Automatic annotation (TrEMBL):
Name of the featured protein: Thioredoxin domain-containing protein
Pfam family, one: Thioredoxin
Keyword Signal: yes
Thioredoxin domain mapped to chain residues: 16-130
InterPro entries from the UniProt entry: Thioredoxin-like_sf (IPR036249), Thioredoxin_domain (IPR013766)
Keywords of this entry: Membrane, Signal, Transmembrane, Transmembrane helix
Signal peptide: 1-25
Keyword Transmembrane: yes
CDD domains: PDI_a_family (cd02961)
Amino acid sequence: MKVKVVCKTINLCLIILISTGLVKCTIPQLDKQDFTSFLNENSLVLVLFKSSRDCPTCDVALENLEKTPQPELLHTEIVKKVVSDEEVAAAFGVTEYPAIVFYRKAYPALYHGELQSEDDVAEFVDWLTKAVSVATIELFEDSFEHLTQASSGATTGDWMVLFYTPQSEECIQILPAFENAAIRVKHWMNFAKVNIETNKKLAERFKITKCPTAKLFKQGKMYHYEPQKYDSHSLVSFVDGWFRNVKSVPVPREPSSFDLLTESIALYIKEQMASDNKLAFVAIVTGGVALLVALLALVLRKSKVERPKQE
């Protein structure tokens, strides 16, 4: 009890000292116009998003961020910055302040915890150690089945896959929280993403009609992510057991070469029927069918004539 009282007293003192200007924070501000270029120029960047309004908890988080040590065995320096631009914050799914986002080669991970005490600092350093490498795997049409083995038995483990498009602001906003969930469960669950703009066949295979859409692939079955809340807590809760509340469906098999051929033919016919050359196309097809029927009739007639001769 005494420890908690002391911690609260220290935090209160920090708020007073920072707000009155008696204690100066040395973490520099990062402006909106320099934000993207700075991320691209630095491998590891830690950004504290704080409200531009009065925010005592933001001040404490800022002070604790300044005291946060470099994780052991990490040789690349983590650069710390402060951002007070709410438009920039919103682009990375930040809706509450303070919020901390860790950028690894500009790829964001939204931290789920607080930074209000010394215990929080220790927990935060542990998270940083786990989060140094990007945990979300990018899947493509030529690697999806090989890596996930979704329809053949899933010997590579279970996969939580986010289908998204870079053109959607909502999709981009949830990627930092999705990445944080991937970090938290990376020792027992695979998290991945699929860009449906460049992987249209996967979008067709899994009938993706809106973005974002997430699906859990587990032991040959598929579970649609229904909560539609893409914070890290909800995502981790879903893969940790909440998926049992969702009806599973068989994983659609990967299209065979014959399936792709017939699909291509059907698509070609559909395109021709919708074009200005529709009548010419119908005439060619009709003529081709008539020719095939005539050839078939000729072959059958010839075989009937040859049978009596052989007898």
